[in-house]
Amino acid sequence: MRQLHDTVWRRRGTSWIWDEEARNQACETAEVWSLRQFLMAWGNWPDDLPSNDGQTLVVAGLEGGLDLLAPDDAEVWLSDAIKAAILSFQDEYAGEAALVFWLPLGHSRLKIHAATDAVTWLCEVPHRGSQLDFGRILWGEANEYPQEIFLRGGSKPAGLFHLRIT
After folding, report:
1. What is d(CA 100, CA 158) in angstroms, rounded to the nearest whole number?
2. Which residues contact 40 (CB under 8 A, 6 or more apart)?
3. Rg (CA), the chain
4. Which of 58, 78, 105, 152 has minimal CB crowding within 10 Å?
5. Domain range summary for the chain, segments of one domain joined by +
6. Quick one: which of 31, 11, 13, 17 has its CA closest to 148?
7. What residue ranges in 33-97 does DSSP mark as E strands?
8. Is the pTM of this model over 0.85?
9. pLDDT band at 115, cuts 50/70/90?
C-alpha cells in the first residue's frame, strides 16, 4: 500500500485514524462528533466544520456501531448508511474538506493484506473471527487509492486515507 507522509488527510478526503497524535493534529477533543451527530447531519451539513479552520470533521463511534451488528447487517449498514453519508459529505464540500473517522482500536481492527492491499475489518465479540470486506464495501476494491498515513518517517501507520470515494 502506498504511504502518505503529507498532511493532506487533514484537509481533504476520508480517513480512518487510530493514532491519538494524529487525532490531536486533526482536531481538539471537544470538536469530535459522535457517529449519531454525523448521521443526523447527513444531507444538512454545516457551513463551517468544527476543526482545522473549518476544513475537517472528526467522527467517533464507527467501531461501536459495527460491533453492535451481526456481520451481514454491519455490511449492509456500512454500505447503505455510512458510505452514503460519506458520499453526501464529499459532494457537499466538493472534495475540499476532510472527513476523519476516529477508530482508537483501528490498528488492531483494520487488516491490510500486503499482497493485494485489500482492507478488512476484524469483528469483535460476539462475532470474533468474522470479517467485513471494508475496502470492497467503501471503495469498491479500488485498492490502489487508499494510502497509509505516516506522521513521520520510521513511525507506524497512524491510519488510512482515501482522497475520493466513488
Report:
1. 12
2. none
3. 15
4. 152
5. 2-162
6. 17
7. 33-34, 56-60
8. yes
9. confident
